[in-house]
Amino acid sequence: MPTMHTLALNHVNFTLREGETVAVMGPSGSGKSTLLHALAGIIKPTAGTVIFRGADLSRMSDAERTKLRRNDFGFVFQSGQLLPELPAVENIALPMMLDGMPYRTATDTAILWLERMGLRALATHRPGEMSGGQMQRIAIARALAVKPAVVFADEPTGALDQATGREVMGILMAAARDNGFRRGRRHPRPQRRFVLRPYRNDAGRPSAPDRRQPQLRPRWRGLSAAG
């Protein structure tokens, strides 16, 4: 019996400009995550190219793509994905230490980000001792501390209540402005004041967003580039 392959992305032509925030919108199963994973070099497309600063990610080795994700890309996920055994300061410092930064320098930088997020008192707390909003702020600090060129966000407020979600989005966008970045995100509730450019993906194909019919619960993922 021949192997059946699902066509997740089809004829997608996408450009992210410097200083831009993009929300990738579409129904569940339309290829939003696949698009972000391909752009981030997590998966290789079966055809086509993904170009970042003149380099084709599909031609890079696994080690080269891993280094790219560690140094140039930042990630914020719905669950935060913090390491439960590490305190907040070390969760933030870990990506910097993996890139060769000394422990003291990395943790000092992490402390500065904790102060910026208003979480200095949680420096020694582990994720199990934090609220959902606090964990997401730690995750945002971890993503921004490495000064990435592009940030990918997958429902960073999807597991939070509306008030906490707005707070987290505000922190994310404020950090973006302060650092010359623009952040992208997927959010289950209308947050139109945060969206700069929509990109709709339906059944793996790009389509124009329908501005006449606002969705009550849009599903979107996002990304952004440094300006």
Summary, kept brief:
The protein has 227 residues and is an alpha/beta fold.
Can you walk through the features of this model?
This protein is of the alpha/beta class and 227 residues long. The chain has helices at residues 32-39, 62-71, 88-98, 103-116, 132-145, 162-178, and strands at residues 21-25, 51-52, 55-56, 73-77, 150-154, 197-202, 205-207, 220-225. A 6-stranded mixed beta sheet has the order 4-5-8-1-6-7. It has a two-stranded antiparallel sheet with strand order 2-3. The longest helix has 17 residues, at 162-178. It is globular.
The stretches of 5 or more residues where confidence is low (pLDDT under 50) are: 180-196, 208-220
The assigned structural class equals alpha/beta
Order of helices and strands: EHEEHEHHHEHEEE
Mean pLDDT: 76
Distance between the termini: 50 Å
Number of helices: 6
Give the radius of gyration. 18 Å
- Main-sheet strand order equals 4-5-8-1-6-7
Give the strand content.
Answer: 5-15%
The residue fraction in helices comes out at 25-40%
